[in-house]
């Protein structure tokens, strides 16, 4: 159980860092004409994989899709992209904290309280 | 490519766009250039950096996108803006033609200023994105530090 929690957190970290990359790409293209922003989805796949086991979690690959835009010439919403970037960073930090605490517990169990 | 590198390519592109705008505004009164004729405004064209190999393989149409293929933006070209020069009647000007007209570059100041503001916004957004990515990396370095 503990192993799969760490694995899940690691996989989520991987996917979040990929999302940071995708968001950076979107922001970089702020002045590209007719640019269609990219989206990265992994939450649902990861959730489904978590119910099945470690191998399935390992096999999760984040899915990147290009957003279809209905009105060509629409500006990229920089504010929304920046919000995504900062949400991603916060979630990443939270997961790092979770892993960190787990490692603390493990080291406490291994070395005792001295 | 890492998030910070991607933002870096965009910073470079926006900076060069700003340089082109500054050049246009600085030369708003240049009536003679080395090639003769008035100065011509330039326009920087940028877009996603595409690997030539990927372009040849025609992978642009597939729906799923490989995370490793994200490589930021690049300057495609710096184009001359095709617009007829602005003719001003200045008979006293030594550069005037036989009818007393001087050809000034046709630079749309309002358009250049708007583009400048947008460029600076895009630059700022990329700085913020870069800082966010930096925070993530430094947070990752914290892992296991206290245990």
**Percent strand of chain A:** 5-15%
What is the topology, as strand order, of the major beta sheet of chain A? 1-2
- Helical proportion of chain B? 40-55%
Biggest sheet character of chain A: 2 strands, antiparallel
Assembly classification: heterodimer
Major sheet of chain B:
2 strands, antiparallel
Principal-axis shape of chain B: elongated
| Spatial gap, N to C terminus of chain B | 31 Å
Structural class of chain A: mainly alpha
* Helix content class of chain A: 55-70%
User: Which protein chains are joined by the largest interface, and how many residues does each one contribute?
Assistant: A-B, 41 and 43 residues
Gyration radius over CA of chain B: 22 Å
Domain tally of chain A? 1
User: How are the strands of the biggest sheet of chain B laid out side by side?
Assistant: 1-2
Essential attributes:
heterodimer; A: 114 residues; B: 147 residues; alpha+beta; 2 domains; two-stranded antiparallel sheet
Describe what this molecule looks like in 3D.
- With 114 residues, chain A is mainly alpha-helical.
- Chain A has one domain (2-111).
- Chain A has helices at residues 2-28, 43-52, 54-58, 78-111, and strands spanning 38-41, 63-66.
- The two termini of chain A are 27 Å apart.
- The mean pLDDT of chain A is 86.
- Chain B is α+β, with helices and mostly antiparallel strands.
- Chain B folds into two domains: 3-28 and 42-80 and 107-142, no CATH class; 29-39 and 83-106, no CATH class.
- Helices cover 44% and strands 16% of the residues of chain B.
- The two termini of chain B are 31 Å apart.
- The chains are: A mainly alpha (114), B alpha+beta (147).
């Amino acid at each position: 159980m503990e192993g799969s929690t760490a694995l899940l957190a690691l996989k989520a970290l991987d996917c979040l860092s990929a999302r940071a990359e995708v968001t950076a790409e979107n922001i970089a293209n702020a002045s590209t004409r007719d640019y269609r922003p990219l989206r990265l989805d992994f939450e649902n796949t990861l959730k489904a994989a978590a119910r099945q086991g470690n191998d399935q979690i390992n096999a999760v690959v984040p899915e990147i899709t290009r957003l279809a835009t209905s009105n060509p010439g629409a500006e990229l919403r920089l504010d929304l992209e920046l919000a995504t970037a900062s949400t991603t960073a916060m979630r990443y930090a939270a997961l790092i904290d979770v892993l960190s605490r787990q490692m603390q517990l493990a080291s406490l169990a291994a070395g005792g309280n001295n | 490519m890492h998030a910070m590198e991607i933002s870096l390519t965009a910073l470079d592109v926006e900076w060069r766009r700003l340089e082109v705008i500054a050049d246009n505004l600085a030369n708003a009164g240049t009536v003679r250039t080395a090639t003769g004729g008035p100065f011509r405004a330039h326009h920087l064209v940028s877009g996603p950096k595409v690997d030539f190999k990927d372009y040849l393989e025609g992978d642009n149409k597939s729906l799923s996108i490989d995370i490793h293929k994200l490589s930021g933006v690049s300057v495609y070209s710096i184009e001359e803006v095709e617009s007829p020069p602005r003719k001003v009647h200045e008979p006293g000007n030594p550069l005037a033609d036989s009818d007393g007209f001087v050809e000034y570059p046709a630079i749309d100041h309002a358009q250049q200023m708007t583009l400048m503001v947008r460029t600076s916004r895009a630059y700022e957004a990329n700085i913020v994105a870069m800082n966010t990515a930096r925070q993530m990396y430094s947070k990752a370095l914290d892992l296991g530090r206290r245990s």
